Structures are given as structure tokens and as C-alpha cells.
Amino acid sequence: MDRILITGGQPLSGTIQISGAKNAALPLMTCGLLTDDRLTLTNVAKLADLATMAELLAQHGLDIFRDGRTLSLGGRITNTEAPYDIVRKMRASILVLGPLLARTREARVSLPGGCAIGTRPVDLHLKGLEAMGAVIKLDGGYIDATAPTGLHGANIVFPFVSVGATENLLMAAALATGVTTLKNAAREPEISDLAACLIAMGAKIEGAGTDSITIEGVKTLHGAQHDILPDRIETGTYACAAAITGGRIFLQNARIETLGAVITSLAEAGIEITEQDNGFWVNRKNGLHGIDVTTEPFPGFPTDMQAQFMALMSVAEGASMVTETIFENRFMHVPELNRMGARINAVGASAIIRGVPHLSGAPVMATDLRASVSLVLAGLAAKGETTISRVYHLDRGYESVEQKLAACGAKIERI
Ligand code: UD1
Would the CB of 303 count as within 6 Å of ligand 1? Predict the structure, then answer.
């Protein structure tokens, strides 16, 4: 099995090209189920999770062509079942539920089941679809959903913010009869990107990017071309790579306005950020200060940046506290970082990090996507060699991670 070997201690310097966002591409690909016409997506990263989504959509009947960074989806739905074997690999598979129901009035989707970062139920997706007229039964580990008279508009108030539920209902509502309102909707940039694509396909949507979205259903959607926004989590991760190594990196194509609290937190920790037309510079000139962060829905500090920021704080001056409010059990990186010499004490939803002058290389194990990249960051800053095993987690969401870092002077290779 592949491992990543890092010899730490090199300040990174150079340019990193930011890829298209994984978490935008996943729902955008499922929009291929909403029309028989061709949907063409550009700026599509080469990632294992997107290959999994393509596999899922292909078995629903879509034909999918990839040419470099362009992905084209089209064709008719021939099968409305999303099988356990694919869904268990990736929770985002649940995003086919809304489009399948809206389009064919039936869907059978495996329940995503447990996951390394907490229980992650899908009740908000199901309740929202029920409010729109779906009849849902849970049977043998599957969600059996039908909409005998089609989906209709509804007023849906989410009890808390869910990115996936907002996306699923947005897509379903685009083809429902009448008007749907989503209150307390997620405001993540990926939601605005999804809405922009749906609008290009003929949907009538207002308010995406705010917590109140109104969708007036249309009878059919048509093909379109859509350019996927740059990945804000990849951007934030490489910003932390510059910061943790005391380096200076230009993040090309990065969009600062999609980073929310990540930018203010980096600045507060002493990192210099300089915006340019096509990206921004991240530069650690002086010391790094420990600061506190709490994960929140956008524009708050993203849970998907929590592990990387904790790696950064482990070498900051003074103490910091990281509080995780979105997912339970998302501190699996803590024992691994501690094996590298970090001083982190996690109790409940908070972790206290006492900064150390340096980390030391060690063999460590990746447990999930963002945890694994936090170990890469720690390895880049550590004295000596770090080997990271189970790197398939990394390949789910980071494109060419070794090449991008090596081009900035990191000593990193896959073995
Ligand atoms: C998406 C992102 C993921 C990110 C997360 C939070 C994708 C493919 N994944 O995941 O990387 O970490 O947003 O920003 O875009 N919840 C329920 N019931 C539901 C739905 C969610 O209780 O029906 C809970 C979850 O367990 C979690 C919280 O709500 O505690 C937020 O989850 P949600 O925003 O739905 O995350 P995902 O869409 O799964």
C-alpha cells in the first residue's frame, strides 16, 4: 500500500495552482441526472471521490466523458438504485436522492452508514423531501423513496445548517411543482456554485449564498456548461503549508472571498496575506501566535480546515484552543500529531494545544481526508522523516499533493 515519505524542515516557496473544488464538483455532477441533455463541467479535479461519483452516475445510466479537466455527462436514467457498494465509499452519494426523485419519482439509495467523523445522519434530507411529497421508507439498509404524484414546493426550515441537505433539496425543488423556500439554508460557496449551474440549466433560484433560498420549480431543465469554483479547503491547506514551514507561497486561482474565517484566523496568527488579481500570497515573516478557533458553518471557520489548523497551532507560540461544533469525533489526528511531539489535549469538543518549538518526524497513520493532510503539514515542519500510511484518504480530496508541494521545495515522495 502507498505511503508518503516527508523529510521536513524546508520553508516552502513558489506557486501552487488551486484545483476545482471537490465539494462543488460532487453535487454539480449529480445535476447530470436532472436533464437528458449534456451537462459539461470544466475545472474538474482528478480525485478519487469524483471517480466514485462518476461510477455511481454511470450505473444510473449516464454516459460520462472526461477530457483533461472537462467532464461531460448526459443520457437517460435507466436505474434508480444507488447500491451499498458505492454509497459506503462516499457519503456524498446521498446527493443522487433528490435529483432521482425529482426526475423519475422513485429512488432507492443505500443509507450511507457510519463514518470515521461521527454518526452523520441524513434525516434532514429525508424530512425535506417528505415535506415536498415524497413517501420514504427505510428497508434493509436502503432509503426507498417514491413521489407518486411528483414533488411539490414546500416551506422548509432547517433546524441547523446542513450543506448536503441544502444541496439535495435545491436540486429536487428545481424540478418540483410550485415554489420551495429553504430557511436556515447553508451559505457555503459550493451552494452558490450549484445554484449558478442550475440557473444556467434553466432553474429559477433566488437567494443562494444567503440563509433563505427560494426556488420556483420548472418542468424541465436543459444542458449547460459550468466552470467549477476553486477549492477553498485545498487553498486553506496550502496556506497552512506556507505558514507551518515559515515559507511564502502564491496560491494561484484561489478566491480569498470563499475562505471566510480562515483568512482572518491566519492573519490573527501572524501570517501575511496579500491579494492579487488571480490569487493571493501567503507569507510567514515573523513568529506564529497561538489563537483560538471554533468551527462553524460558512462564513465561520470550516470544520474541513480544523485538523490542518491544529497542526499549525502545534508549533505556534503560546497556547490555542480549537473547538469542533459541526462533527462529533473529529479529533482523530490528535494522537497522531502528539506522536510527532505536539502537545495537544482534547477533551469533549475542544482541544488545547500548547505550542512546541518543533515537531519530530514519526511513522503516522491517516484516518480521514483532512486528518491525513494535517499529518502532511506536520511532516513538512517536523525535524526528520515522517511516513504517512493509508494515503488513499488523501487521494480522495487532494490532487497531485506531492507534486504541488515538491514544486515549492518540499522533500516529499510516494513510496
Ligand atoms: C459537507 C461537506 C463536508 C463538510 C461538511 C460541513 C461535501 C461533499 N461534504 O458534508 O466536507 O465537512 O459539509 O461543512 O460537501 N446532519 C444531520 N442530519 C442530516 C444532515 C446533516 O444531523 O440530515 C448533521 C451532520 O451529522 C453534521 C452537521 O449536520 O453534524 C453538518 O453536516 P452537513 O453540513 O450536512 O455535512 P455534509 O453535507 O455531509
Answer: yes
